[in-house]
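User: Can you predict the 3D structure for this chain?
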Amino acid sequence: MEQERFIIGITGGSGCGKTTLLRCIGEKGGLVLDCDEIYHQLLQTDENLLLSIAHRFPGVVENGALQRKKLGAIVFADEKALSDLNRLTHTAVKAEVLRRLKNAPKLVAIDAVALFEGDLAEICHVTVAVTAPKEARIQRLMARDGISREYAQNRIEAQRTDGEFSALCQYTLENTGDIGAFRTKCLAFLTELDII
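Assistant: Here is the predicted structure, written as structure tokens:
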């Protein structure tokens, strides 16, 4: 009988270093489903999603394209606005994840900040929170996304805390900032789970 597919759900705040864990899984032949990337692809291909966002947040769609920083400035400063945006996007993203799983290999990683809110945790065999010190996250986001310190802080504060992510997940991997050491920790963790 064919071995069942193993799905690992990975979550954690922006700038925690989830990419390192995802790279390890990808190197071992696993399929990585980045829900943020899927969301951005859907903004290009799913006209209904874009129209829904434009209707709820007038002015954030210009010439058929979402103005991400404009939308970010609204939702990261207003809890209700963020909740509304999430409601619009989670359904579309989950449907696309399920579609991609149909032809997936034996090992799949779902990377989602909203793993639980988007109802994706329920299809995972294991859930993992990746955490990191706040200052390291701020510096990483500023460098990676070319954003101000204030914007990076607002983004982090709009998300769950490390403690909240850890409480939801079965496992937590703490990234103290040394990429080499964190990569070693990730590989050891995947070996312990017996999935690589």
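The longest helix spans residues 79-101. The first strand starts at residue 6 and ends at 11.
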